[in-house]
Amino acid sequence: MTEPEPTGGTGDPEVVGAPGAWQPRRYPSTVGGGFYLAILLTASTAIGIVVTGDWRLGVRVLAAALAAAALLRLVLPRRDAGMLAVRHRVLDVLILAGVAAALYWLAGSIPDQPG
Hints:
Layout: H1 31-52, H2 55-75, H3 78-81, H4 89-109
Helix pairs in contact: 1-2, 2-4
């Protein structure tokens, strides 16, 4: 025979929290989270620059944002890196810096197209 689960002595189920008591956080919990949002804003601005005309400048701004992310990932400890920390530090830095360098180089090396 199975016994019913205890309910706290009153016969009513235990209430964990009142409705609406839990509020989601609206700010980054680490300094890296703030930097991540700044880099995300810069990358979005870069894409806007590309769409509105000067694609070379937009790609260079995107490369600068990725280079800044690589530098921040290099200097911030893992607990403070927030969403910048995806893999091991060395791998994150190499990927971010490599893509930044490739984009910057491509923006300067692709010749102007006629038309």
